[in-house]
Inverse folding.
């Protein structure tokens, strides 16, 4: 019984410690610039997630250097409301410290980035630049 209680308390403490760190991770993003590259879904359009994840996004991330804090890749699954069409096939997001550094780093590589599009999609992306508030 005592061993089970110790195991239970250890698990509770571990869970609480992990949970307590979550707000710090979220808070660290405040003030970062977020570049969202969104690929609208449409019938007949294609998107190769494997290529995007293993080739395209790492290539672009390498161009950004130390300005890049992290990047994420979202695969569209469904719309927020049942019966509605999928809004985006995918969204790639870069979190950077400086918009001007991002623009300076990307500019010399725009042709290479655009030339890589046919390797994974026939969708024209929509790009949103925003600031992380919270």
């Amino acid at each position: 019984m005592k061993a089970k209680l110790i195991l239970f308390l250890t698990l509770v403490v571990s869970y609480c410690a992990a949970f307590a760190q979550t707000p710090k991770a979220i808070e660290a993003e405040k003030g970062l610039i977020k570049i969202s590259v969104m690929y609208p879904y449409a019938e007949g359009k294609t998107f190769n997630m494997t290529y995007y994840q293993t080739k395209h996004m790492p290539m672009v991330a390498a161009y950004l250097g130390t300005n890049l804090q992290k990047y994420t890749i979202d695969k569209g699954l469904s719309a927020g409301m049942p019966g509605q069409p999928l809004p985006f096939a995918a969204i790639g997001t870069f979190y950077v410290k400086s918009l001007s550094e991002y623009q300076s780093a990307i500019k010399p590589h725009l042709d290479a980035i655009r030339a890589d599009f046919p390797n994974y999609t026939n969708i024209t992306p929509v790009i949103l630049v925003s600031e992380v508030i919270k």
